[in-house]
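[User] Could I get a sequence and structure tokens?

[Assistant]
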Amino acid sequence: MPNEKAKIKMLKQEEANALLPQIRMILKSLREQRSVVLRTQAQIEIEEMTGADSTAQLSPVAQAAITKLMEAFHYQTHQFENKLEDLFQLGAHLKDLDTGLVDFYSRRGHEIVFLCWKEGEAEIRHWHSLQGGYPSRKPL
């Protein structure tokens, strides 16, 4: 997860727009990594269900397989978290991976707001208050 000690970046619209190619690539990578994690999680669950005997004890083979899968799972989730951190370091705050909804801290006059971008949009054209969200966004 994002490093709490990291300084929050305040971006201008032009700066945030310049990051969109990188952000698109990271979103694609996050989705791919999420799929890998979910597949591994499913494999662990299957191994747990099929590797047990009638007394619900796992066989040594199943235990070894689960241990190996758990190691992979931990590595994969760490990779996913690193990609989230990459986004955060750019100044992007992921709100919804499925829709590609990303916010960026910015200023409108003296007010701190979010620039709001959704994957599929050519550039950032909306903003909303820190308390608001996607439904309350307004054109820039």
Notes: The first helix runs from residue 13 to 50. The beta strands are 92-96, 101-108, 111-118, 126-129, 138-139.
